[in-house]
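pipeline stage [seq->struct] | target=FAD dependent oxidoreductase TIGR03364 | organism=Leifsonia soli | residues=385
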Amino acid sequence: MGRHYDLAVVGAGIVGLGHAVAALRRGLTVAVIDRASGVQGASVRNFGHLGITGQEGEARAYAELARELWLTLAPEAGFWLRESGSIVVARADDELAVLEEFRERRGGHDVRLLTPAEVRESVPVADGVAVGGALLPSDLQIDPREAAAAIARWLDAHGVDFFWQTAVSGVEPGLVRTPRGRVAADAVVVAVGHDVDHLFPGIAEAHGIERCGLDMMLVEAALELPLATPVLTGWSLVRYSGFARTPSAAALRERLAAEQPALAALDVNLMFTQRPDGTLIVGDTHARGADASPFQHEEAFALLLEQTRELFGVADLRVRERWQGVYAAAPDEFLVAAPAPGVRVVSVTTGIGMTTGLGLADRVVDELFSDAPGALIPAGAARVR
Ligand SMILES: Cc1cc2nc3c(=O)[nH]c(=O)nc-3n(C[C@H](O)[C@H](O)[C@H](O)COP(=O)(O)OP(=O)(O)OC[C@H]3O[C@@H](n4cnc5c(N)ncnc54)[C@H](O)[C@@H]3O)c2cc1C
């Protein structure tokens, strides 16, 4: 750890790796420090859905930049990515109404409404289930099991130093403290996802950061057709900002809660992606708190499986794995705080870090190494007291 770096990054999830990529591209020297032995956090536990189209505002800007970065990185770092778009399956007229309003908000761009027959051409939903849907052609898909790890290997091969199994215990201007020694750098980015409170409790409290725990499954299913795209449902339409801000979204939320109280209580976002080996990632539920519960309730998995059977009309599902994912959740979608000169604390504080993280990181590195410091830091951003 004797070397001096331009940038030290704490956290080797997609947000931390995104900072390392951005710094490397600008010719800077970089160290990445992570307490785990490899990429193991939210960045491998997700759907691998890069939902560009469903974002609005700041998230949309980061998502569009991230899209370009993902497209460049996939061939360079050698991981699977497909320009699949996504399909939203509408199972009721109020879901179609949200999609129609969303398409209008976008001036008809980047959203194509689908007939039930068109939905069935790409998604093997059971007969009569879809009343229509939408194709979101800009969305991408990666395999979360391999993408971030491949980026870390690529960075390593290009001269970024990784310090694995090294828990960071403190950060000061120009310095990262660990039980193995110190890492010195001109600038430090702390990208520890939901663990902001461990290093910067004042920032976590000021931004209302909590942990959101999610139940996920990997399932083998004999679908009629492979899933050509990630598949979203009406539950996704009341979650992602672009859809959730349409006039009809409130009524849809109410109807879903009245008809499916058990799913609403679990704050479900029913969606599916298929990995290159054919297995389906099925999820998810959301439970927020200071800590994610150590226990996962079987009822949640049973409900997700029942929904999967109904949607695809398949009786036979074999669960291969279950896991819990955790991400940072807060009222704002992003945290960029400057607790000290040359130190940035960065987290995506809703479940869209794979979609936006690379773009956000690129902007933070721009700001840190430009002559206009503070440009990205929102007014009132927390400072460590
Ligand atoms: C189940 C689930 C499904 C999701 N689906 C999607 C999706 O389809 N699309 C999408 O866009 N987003 C999705 N998300 C959100 C997305 O996965 C996250 O926003 C993103 O991965 C966060 O990346 P990160 O780098 O901030 O955090 P992480 O990937 O969690 O990485 C943080 C890293 O910091 C390290 N760390 C923590 N504390 C220390 C310390 N003191 N010292 C050293 N290292 C430390 C950890 O070991 C970890 O490696 C999903 C999230 C979950 C949980």
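stage status: PASS
auto-comment: Residues 86-137+210-329 form a domain with the D-Amino Acid Oxidase; Chain A, domain 2 fold (CATH 3.30.9.10). The first helix runs from residue 14 to 25.
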